[in-house]
Amino acid sequence: MTRLLAVAGVWCATAAMAATPSADYRIVGYVVDNAPLPHISADKLDVINYAFAKLDAKGDVVFPSPVADQTLASFVALRKVNPQLKVIVSIGGWGADYFSEAALTDASRQHMADGVVALIEKHDVDGVDLDWEYPTLPGPGISHRPEDKRDFSLLLETLRSRLDQLGAKHGGRHYLLTIAAADSEFVAGIELERASRSLDWFNLMTYDFHTSLTPTTGHHAGLHLSTIAPADDRAGDKAVAQFLAAGVPAKKLNFGVAFYGRAFTGVDPAHDGLQQKYANFAGAPSWRELVASYIDRSGYVRHWDAQAQAPYLWNAATHTFVSYEDPESIRAKMAFVKAKGLGGAMYWEQSLDRNEELLDVMDQSLRTH
Asked: What share of residues in the chain are helix, strand, coil (percent, to 5)?
């Protein structure tokens, strides 16, 4: 209980007079259960996605973190600061298994739905977010089968029905059901239009376009394609277009923002390392680390790709390339959210920011008319 009081006390003291956020665009922030928890200004976002709960082999929803109960209680307490704040439990994440089994039969789907309802009632949270990466695909060793495509729709429909029953029990309260989703070939395993009927929104992971799994460097979170990128490369605007073309309403799409970069070493020097072959993937420095040790420091020079609306770093001495997000690229993305009439924006992840600098850009950009 000490942890809860300390965390909630700090947040409430710093934002006690905060105004309620605008309802025009939502800001959804993932928060990983770390010790200590990062500072969260409850007036700057609309939804906290707690990361992560998992499914076990029996289809039960479990918490790997030993302090999950305390963490969720501290998040729920932030409603005293922002009464409109929603707290959602995100289930899954990269490498999380047993979704395919949980979605497989009527009985297994109902079992998971009952577990979700029990979790919601126990913690007084506002719903769940499913982060299955990815239906029908092997991912990092997860179970998968072709039936996942239809089974995922059925799982969402079972959950939606069960959440509506719970809402009726609690005076008509609406419980949220959302998913994290990627673009391109990753959506081949989802019935997008059908899934959207059960969902309140999609958290689009419009980042990680270039990682250790891709053959070249590139913008890992570019809004548009670079002029030197191949036509089949991934970009944020292409992802949105793909979901809209599948019949997903624009207001159900949250554009994803990454509070971290992607670094590559042994990079060919053409175009200052952009869209080049590399020898090694060198990790994912957080925004905090980028400001402290990379941007215009130690030989790293910032470049701006006006076509892609994305920054990148090039170190000519070490042949290191870093793709990342910064205030300029985030402002461009928030303008895109408004121009396309999307539901809002999502980010990964709270602890990677520095003094909420990037969150502030999202907040100020979306709350200004």
From this structure: 35, 20, 40
Amino acid at position 280, single letter: N
Instruction: Please tell me which residue in 101, 133, 325, 356 is annotated as part of the active site.
Output: 133
Q: For residue 310, give the H/E element and its range.
A: strand 310-315
In a domain, 294, yes or no: no
CATH number at residue 192: 3.20.20.80
101 noted as active-site residue: no
Residue 85 lies in a domain: yes
**pLDDT digit string (tens) for 257-285?**
999 999 999 999 999 999 999 999 999 99
Tell whether 17 is covered by a domain: yes
Helix, strand, or coil here: 105?
coil
Amino acid symbol at 138: P
Report if residue 283 sits inside a domain.
Answer: no
Number of domains forming the structure of the chain: 1
Got the DSSP string for 171-217?
TTPPPEEEEEE--GGGGGGS-HHHHHHH-SEEEE----SSSTTSSB-
Buried b / exposed e across 226-262, counting CB within 10 Å, b at 16+?
A: beebeeebbbbbbbbebbbeeebbeebbbbbbbbbbb
Q: Tell me: the pLDDT tens digits for 298-345? A: 999 999 999 999 999 999 999 999 999 999 999 999 999 999 999 999
